[in-house]
Amino acid sequence: MLAAEQIARWRRHLFDLDRLSLMGPSMTPENILKIADGHPLLLAGGYIPLVQAATIIGLTTHDLLRQAAEGRLALHCRLQGEAGYRTPFWSFEPDDPELGTVLVPRTCYRPPESKLHRAFGMYRIPQDETTSAANLLLTEGAVTILAFADSSASTDDLAFVPERIFELTDQLIEVSAVEVDALRRKMADALPPAALSAVRQAQRGVVPQAPANAKSSLPLTQAIEEYCKAHLPQTISSPKEVARIRNGLLLLAEFEGDLAIGQFSADILRSFRDTHLAQMPAKENQVRQKFGTSTMTESILAIEGSDWPRMSPNERDVRMQWLYRMFRWFHAQKWIPDDPCTGLRGESVLTKSQRKMAAVARKDRTAFTEEEVAKIFAAPVYRADSWKATQAGTFRTFQPFHYWLPLLGLFTGARIGELCQLYLDDVRCEEGVWFIDINQRSVDKSLKNEWSKRHVPLHPKLVELGFVGWCDHLRKAGYKRVFPELSWNPTNRYAKEPIRAMSQFLEKLGMPRDGTKVFHSFRHGVNDLLQKRSSMPDIMRKRMMGHEPGEGVNERHYLSEPKPKEIYGFIGEMGGGLPSVSPFNLTVGSLAIGDALRRKNGGRGASEYVG
After folding, report:
1. Cα separation, 234 vs 247, whole angstroms
2. How many domains does the chain have?
3. Whole-number Å distance between alpha carbons of 272 and 168
């Protein structure tokens, strides 16, 4: 009975708190203490993101938006050099006098009293529009803004009208730290003393069921060092890649503080993702070189207000994956009782509306037409009279991979990374048919997935042009790889230089550089031909392309791997549109490789021995 009475009293305290302040939040002990004790960020003044403000005072963004809808909180947006015009609000032409609405003209029809302006810093949603804007954010998730008020002005007399229409979400809204702290203090005053006392007593009186792991109190920076030393070398062979991941992980400590790893929560990681990671510049090493910065914080400040590109969504997702794996490892080692990333996995760095916009803007890759194939293989690199050294005696403009990779793509449909990492031992003959063995049998190789392992027969045209002979020539010269001139790097393995060279090559041919025509277009062409114009069985096509088979047990477990000789009979029609191509010259190829290796091993970034 005593326990039931205590529970009832506690529930009445929570009900009073909800009634006196906000109806929405879940009043956990942790959140009540946040409301009561405040946060240092609120004392620093200035503006903070709405999402972060909600987190540090133990509420949700919807709670703060409801306060804004009731006129207790102003909503702001940070503008970075937006073009538009400034004008007094009274200069707008009335639209409906009863409703008080006005017409907001575009820049070319701006009022006579206006002046062109480029906006930097904080701008406020006009006071008389805050309620409707907050309600739209609550119900629709976004609000369209045509005009802002200058946040630095004491009144809303001056409007700024940007050239483009803004669609704001709660991720883009910022609020005044002073106003948020005033709201928090009002809520703290409404806390029943008995409720707050009960929380503090419960916090002091909690006895853990098991001894606390001392590792949970490790500072993040120290835990990262142990993770990078003990775990990453087990999964990553490149010291450079380990160092890259380590530097990426340390950014969490730079922006969120060197907290104990047991103190990190999903809210802190989400704040890092949405607030800080989104502001980080692309190619930050170039920012450091240009502006002399030494930390990511300084680099962000250096490019503020400029058009320097920010880190791409894909790269930001990669950075978050690094964090997810690290905290999962901490949890598996029992360094922390719970994994704070559990609730974040599956989330994207982009909002739903941003993902929709990205999907609309993204163009799918398409196969090369026969006319485009003819154009590619009529280029000088496929004519013997162009295989010459430069005046300096180097072969910078001609390397064997320039000649062979497009041909291999056209006749095998293999991915560029799979071809670049081929070893000479991977080019073999079985039952009279030459083929390439795409595998992952060495530490410098990487495949997309388990189904990418396969044997792909060589089209007779490749043999005719001298590919097998070239591989034999390399073996006799003591080389180990098909393309020894290529350097390895942790991101693209051996494919970095070929990807760049292919993009420049297609650009010179006048093909669009919008992602629709790339090396992968060869793969699309082979797949389309085998699927639509060939009698090859579908399961055989999937295995030749390295695609995952269907869901059936028969396809996945009981069908044997097709032999190169079985596939060979179906590939005769490949290579449509190929013009006359000069056979490869072994002598020129050897000179080109020798020149490339002299430059590569002379400080051009190679970390491997010849071959």
Report:
1. 18
2. 3
3. 20
